[in-house]
Sequence to fold (112 residues):
Amino acid sequence: MQHQTFPTFTDKTANRSHRAGVTLMCEVRQGSRPWAVARLEDISEQGFRIAWLPGCNPELPLRIKIPGLQLLNAKIRWQEGHAFGCEFNEPLHIAVFENIVRQAVIDGPLSR
Fold:
């Protein structure tokens, strides 16, 4: 089994450009709406992209459950078609980011 590791960045600008192409299933929620299963398609320490989220309101904050992690809060920053780019309220720690990527590789596409 081979793991890809990611460098630790000290410059926030460099950090923003480092994304990992992963595909995993997560749960998202806005306001009091029910939790919805969504496909997360890439992730960085600062944010992530959701492939499709019906009924999403870009004005409302988003809560996300990534398997194995605590509940995370995010803001929607952009929309392109059905995809949404989101920014975590607090950036992920590098070890958490690497763990998500490593686990996505181990579990394979669309793990949950």
Remarks:
- The beta strands are 20-29, 36-43, 47-50, 62-65, 72-80, 83-88.
- The chain has two helices and six strands.
- The radius of gyration is 14 Å.
